[in-house]
Amino acid sequence: MVAAGLSPSELPPIKPNMDLAYPNSSIFLVDIPEVFFGCPFSSVFLHYCFKENAVCVGLYRNSASVIDYSTKGANQNSGSELINESASADNVPLSNTAYFVANPSPTSILVPGDKAYILSSNFSRL
Asked: Which of 22, 63, 81, 123 is most exposed by smallest CB count within 10 Å?
């Protein structure tokens, strides 16, 4: 969480008995709220961590959505990182390829169609 921009004083306290503090959790694939499109991954990570009591461990993406969004953003100088993470970086033909990014960079830009894998003991908005 420090890498996401939090100072050590903003981190949640560590509980002495972690077995009692956090029940078993499951992994869920959830839609990312539209308000986060165009924002860095760190913003949705912090949202799930502090507002939903969940940990976002990765993104499920569609290469066509990422490339399309980065092409539109390239005119505004905001899409360079998206292109680096996309299938086009490996000279793969533009297609509708789904892929998973574990532990994305905090600066990875979220695009329409992205989904998040989260760990949570219960997630009510499925």
From this structure: 22
